[in-house]
Design goal:
single chain; alpha/beta; Rossmann fold; N-(1-d-carboxylethyl)-l-norvaline Dehydrogenase, domain 2; 9 helices; 4 strands; 10% strand; elongated
Length: 204
């Protein structure tokens, strides 16, 4: 997309709010700015906004404040960071590295528990020591299985972000594999059960 915009000689404001690594954002900036456009880095956190406050669009780069003004009357809250291109993407990567990677881990743990026949015991222990975890694991399945296909590329971008910072990238790469195993639920009309998801993750 950036290359297509560059080829047209676009000289307006280009906002990229996809879930990308800071390095990817800076690469996109180089492409569109070579044609004379103003690039603003963006990162969205939250669900599709029905009302203001449901989701935030973080923006960074020289035109961030001006870009934020464009959303002043919309349901999407725009927040300009006093930071260069890459900062908004880094914030998105950091946030999603927890929410999406931890969800994938919970899915994998439930699959492991079923494979080893200790799910009831595990849920009982969770109820005693980490009471919110059974419900969180159920939500990890119901809330993510049907859109897992969307997270595969995002996990790769998160892994690249960690690697570029000199940190281990394996957390997100493992999550990517879990989400790859759930691609089959992309067009499902209802959320699959924990048992079904566990079977898909285990390849059984």
């Amino acid at each position: 997309m950036a290359s297509a915009v560059e080829s047209l000689g676009f000289k307006g404001m280009y906002i990229d709010a996809n879930a990308t690594s800071p390095a990817t954002a800076r690469g996109i900036a180089d492409i569109v700015e070579s044609a004379g456009a103003a690039f603003v880095d963006g990162g969205i956190i939250g669900p599709p906004p029905a009302k203001r406050g449901d989701a935030r669009l973080y923006l960074s780069g020289g035109g961030a404040a001006r870009a934020a003004e464009l959303f002043a009357d919309s349901a999407l809250e725009a927040i300009a960071l006093d930071a260069p291109v890459g900062a908004a993407s880094a914030l998105k990567m950091a946030y999603a590295s927890w929410t999406k990677t931890s969800a994938a881990l919970l899915i994998a743990v439930r699959a492991l528990a079923q494979a080893e026949g200790i799910e009831t015991a595990l849920l009982g222990e969770w109820q005693r020591s980490i009471p919110d975890l059974p419900a969180r694991s159920e939500k990890a399945v119901s809330g993510n299985a049907r859109k897992a296909w969307r997270f595969i590329g995002e996990m790769e971008e998160i892994a690249a972000t960690f690697a570029d910072a000199g940190l281990p990238a394996g957390f997100s790469l493992a999550a990517r594999e879990i989400y790859q195993r759930l691609e089959q639920y992309k067009d499902a009309t209802t959320p699959p059960s924990v048992t079904d998801v566990a079977s898909a993750v285990l390849g059984s």
